[in-house]
Amino acid sequence: MSNTSTIFTEEHNIQTPCKLFVVGDPQVLLIQPSARHEEKNDGVRREVDLIAQASPTGFAMVFFDCVEWARALMPWADDAVSRDADVGRHAPDTLRFIEHTLLPWLRERFGALPCIIGGYSLGGLFALWTARNTDAFAAVAAASPSLWINGWGEYAAAHPILSPQATAHHSLNTTLQISTPQHITTTTPIHLSLGDREEHCRNQRMKRIGDCVRAEHTLLCQQLSPTAVTLRWHEGGHFGAEAERTAEAFAWCIEQIAQQHLDPQQPESTNIDSRRNIFYKYGIFFINTEYFL
């Protein structure tokens, strides 16, 4: 990252640890659940750096820590994921935390910017589930989502994506912001991806993932439009290049949002390094919340 990084910390009652990255002048918000496996090899920082390299649009990105990954993100129980009785009960709590605590915290600081939800594996599954339960998100970045869980196909078919209703307006810094609710319905861009070896694993349940993701892509093209959805095939299995795959998904979503919402007269940065040197922050903060994560 840039050598001009500024470290800052805000401490609240320690409930939900979050990591905030700000690159350039934010015009979009990114939210992603994270866990220990995403911290390996500096994966979180690398993902942010890759997004910054791929997109000329400034952004603020928060990773919120899921101590119990499956408990926080699974929309319902599935013994193939976990036999823990609490798994499948707390995804609504996690979504309430995002909508009523984390997103207002971000918008208080950066304005009413469009927000992209995304994640990897169960995080990608959770992102697709949230977009069927709220219209708070302008796009979804679902990298190698765990769509092989029992009942997903039936649930997805019965619950279309809730595209946000929004009206664009100029703020003092000329960033085009979004206010809700209004009368202009925007189409939610969705990026799906999968490793080309994931469907060739030995696990009989998980090897369905190829067909499940293809079916999700077909369904989303019908529910939204073929131009709003993309399916990217990567080389490799499920465990590898998580940061790279997720970064590509977020960068694609940012590009789609920029075409829909952002100010076409806003000057583009001349290059990535100069943009990042203008304003780059990284910090750890804690949000006090009653919700279980």
How would you explain this protein's 3D organization?
This protein is of the alpha/beta class and 293 residues long. It has helices at 36-39, 43-54, 69-73, 91-110, 122-130, 152-158, 209-223, 242-260, 272-278, and strands at residues 6-10, 16-23, 28-34, 59-65, 115-120, 139-143, 167-170, 176-179, 190-195, 229-234, 280-287. Strands 1-11-2-4-3-5-6-9-10 form a nine-stranded mixed sheet, with helices on both faces. A two-stranded antiparallel ribbon has the order 7-8. The radius of gyration is 18 Å and the shape is globular. Mean pLDDT is 80; it is low at 1-14, 166-184, 267-280 and 288-293.
Helix content: 25-40%
Count of DSSP helices?
9
Strand order of the largest sheet: 1-11-2-4-3-5-6-9-10
How would you spell out the order of helices and strands? EEEHHEHHEHEHEEEHEHHE
Quaternary: single chain
SSE layout:
Blueprint: E1 6-10, E2 16-23, E3 28-34, H1 36-39, H2 43-54, E4 59-65, H3 69-73, H4 91-110, E5 115-120, H5 122-130, E6 139-143, H6 152-158, E7 167-170, E8 176-179, E9 190-195, H7 209-223, E10 229-234, H8 242-260, H9 272-278, E11 280-287
Parallel strand pairs: 1-11, 3-4, 3-5, 5-6, 6-9, 9-10
Antiparallel strand pairs: 2-4, 2-11, 7-8
Helix pairs in contact: 2-8
Tags for this model:
293 residues, alpha/beta, nine-stranded mixed β-sheet, two-stranded antiparallel ribbon, 9 helices, 23% strand, globular, disordered C terminus
Offer a concise description of the structure.
This protein is an alpha/beta fold and 293 residues long. Helix content is 33%, strand content 23%.
